[in-house]
Automatic annotation (TrEMBL):
Keyword terms, alphabetized: Carbohydrate metabolism, Glucose metabolism, Isomerase, Magnesium, Metal-binding, Phosphoprotein
CDD domains found in the cross-reference section: PGM2 (cd05799)
Pfam families in the record: PGM_PMM_I, PGM_PMM_II, PGM_PMM_III, PGM_PMM_IV
Catalytic activity from the UniProt record: alpha-D-glucose 1-phosphate = alpha-D-glucose 6-phosphate
Pathway(s) where this gene product acts: Lipid metabolism; Glycolipid metabolism; diglucosyl-diacylglycerol biosynthesis
UniProt record similarity statement: Belongs to the phosphohexose mutase family.
GO MF annotation list: magnesium ion binding; phosphoglucomutase activity; phosphopentomutase activity
Name this polypeptide is given: Phosphoglucomutase
Length: 566
């Protein structure tokens, strides 16, 4: 059907709720918006789906949520009665329509004869990951759009190990969802209420007990300002701090209650300095040592450190390096550093953490972008122990210390970060000073991410054309520095430019290109898997901060010029 036919089908549907029908009538007055709402089905990808809330097949609404849930229900049913009994654990964050979407999903599963465990109120993504494992559920779902603006929501899918689905399982689920032809025809009003179970304090207690095991040493005095940015983590983090024994935590009261409108922030994204505006005011009143902000679904954390004159926002790569230094240092001091210890990072994450790990004799392994690939390594290790997991992280502010959860866990990371800050404070240092000591020891690593939004049909075409063009005619040099090696994760080949030879990359297929330059710098191009964006990653290393900063700026400007002139 054309997009106009799809829209007319919705408008003519007898069971369409009144609010949706009114929104559709308004939408029909703007042809461009109407086309974008109906030109395709909302893409259900390897991690689930994410999009703007509103009417239409290309939007997040109760009908597209039912369709996704029906497809997953069919997938679960294909595994038999035992899988249906084990059921699905469901959590949701503080966003618009998150409770409603969670209820729609649960009712759809129950109507299909599948047990559904649903949290009573907003909970974090890592707690859902833990819950799947704790309940031995067959799958898990989180209703969240992470740090996106208020008009977005999403639907993330987890396997029985608590990690996001691996590529093989995701492809199977995508197939089942795509076979659900009519999202308007799915009924979930009639179901066995005994198949619905509400989750609350008992699972909260079990999760918090596990988080507390992250602690490495005794509690030391520290002054901290914390904000969940109107998200799902506030109550959980407060309990963790109280039970761990930290009394010097000041909470940003305006942002502690879950609120999907995110009224006090421009963006609920801890990567952005503006997200810390209120926390910074709190911190300056008491000269707090550390500011911490967690994103709405509680899986990513950002930190700002008092340097003596101002608060310096750490990048995800810098926080990862500091956490590794503290964690591995503590384990070494206690004689608990295993010989087979291993850390994991993604291909767009800095080599800084790898250098820190190497200094402790710990192996580092790269995976594709996305925490699911770290989860996949942990699942493989469950079956056949090859290493002891010590730490996993990605540059986009996601960290995992203990693998009772199998996705990035901002609650764990927050507790360890505060402990590290307190430990170093006792030695007369702050985390920014520790960071610079690490740079002096390992080299000044600098990284940068540039994201370019490409919305709608035309934007998707532009991203495809960009990647195709870079593959057809790859740059031979960037910023006057020769390209030494090209990794194409779509063809899974590594090309050694000078030698004119290629070798296989032993990683799953992904639409990503990475260029390695002769001076050790690198550039990576990757379309976002969850947003209409193309992302450009840049990384350099130099002997001084100034030299590193200058190299990074030159690398960025040169590559963006190459892209713009194609």
């Amino acid at each position: 059907m054309t997009w106009k036919q799809r829209m007319q089908k919705w408008l003519g549907h007898e069971g369409l709720d009144v609010d949706t029908k009114q929104q559709l009538q308004l939408l029909s007055e703007d042809e461009q918006l109407a086309e974008d709402a109906f030109y395709q089905d909302l893409v259900f990808g390897t991690g689930g789906m994410r999009g703007e809330i509103g009417p239409g097949t290309n939007r997040m609404n109760v009908y597209t949520v039912r369709k996704a849930s029906k497809g997953i229900a069919d997938y679960i049913e294909s595994f038999g009665e035992q899988a249906m009994k084990r059921g699905v654990a469901i959590a949701f964050d503080s966003r618009r329509m998150s409770p409603e979407f969670a209820e729609e999903a649960a009712r759809t599963f129950a109507a299909a004869g599948i047990r559904a465990y649903v949290y009573e109120a907003a909970r974090t993504t890592p707690q859902l990951s833990f819950t799947v494992r704790e309940l031995n559920a067959f799958m898990g779902i989180v209703i969240t759009a992470s740090h996106n603006p208020p008009e977005y929501n999403g639907y993330k899918v987890y396997g029985e190990d608590g990690a996001q689905l691996d590529l093989e399982a995701a492809d199977q689920v995508i197939g089942f969802v795509s076979r659900v032809e009519d999202e308007l025809a799915i009924e979930n009003d009639e179901y066995d209420s005994s198949l619905l179970e509400i989750l609350g304090e008992e699972l909260d207690r079990a999760y918090i007990d596990q988080v507390l095991t992250v602690q490495e040493t005794s509690v030391e005095p520290i002054s901290v300002v914390f904000t969940p940015l109107h998200g799902a983590s506030g109550a959980t983090v407060r309990r963790v701090f109280d039970e761990a024994g930290y009394s010097g935590v000041n909470y940003v009261k305006e942002q502690m209650a879950p609120d999907g409108e995110f009224p006090t922030v421009e963006s609920p994204n801890p990567e952005e300095s503006s997200a810390f505006d209120l926390a910074r005011k709190y911190g300056e009143e008491q000269t707090a040592d550390l500011l911490i902000a967690i994103d709405p679904d509680g899986d990513r954390v950002g930190a700002a450190v008092w340097t003596g004159t101002q608060y310096e926002l750490l990048t995800g790569n810098q926080t990862g390096g500091i956490l590794l230094e503290y964690l591995l240092g503590q384990k070494k001091a206690k004689g608990e550093l295993p010989e087979d210890g291993r850390i994991f990072k993604t291909i767009v994450t800095s080599g800084f953490g790898e250098a820190v790990a190497r200094s402790y004799g710990v192996e580092s392994e790269d995976v594709l972008t996305g925490f699911k690939f770290i989860g996949e390594k942990l699942r493989e290790n469950d079956a056949q122990h090859e290493f002891t997991f010590l730490f996993g992280y990605e540059e986009s502010y996601g960290y995992l210390i203990r693998d009772f959860a199998r996705d990035k866990d901002a609650v764990q990371a927050t507790l360890l970060l505060v402990e590290a800050a307190a430990f170093y404070k006792k030695q007369g240092k702050n985390l920014y000073g520790v960071l610079n000591e690490l740079y002096e020891r390992h080299g000044f690593y600098r990284e940068l991410l540039v994201s370019v939004t490409k919305k709608g049909i035309e934007g998707a075409r532009e991203i495809t054309q960009l990647l195709d063009g870079l593959r057809t005619a790859p740059p031979q040099s960037i910023a006057g520095i020769a390209v030494e090696k090209i990794e194409d994760y779509d063809s899974r080949t590594r090309t050694l430019v000078d030698m004119g030879t290629s070798e296989a990359i032993v990683l799953p297929q992904s639409n990503v290109l990475k260029y390695f330059l002769s001076d050790g710098s690198w550039v990576c191009v990757r379309p976002s898997g969850t947003e209409p964006k193309v992302k450009y990653y840049f990384g350099v290393k130099a002997a001084t901060q100034q030299e590193s900063d200058e190299k990074l700026e030159l690398l960025k400007e040169s590559f963006l010029d190459i892209v713009a002139n194609r």
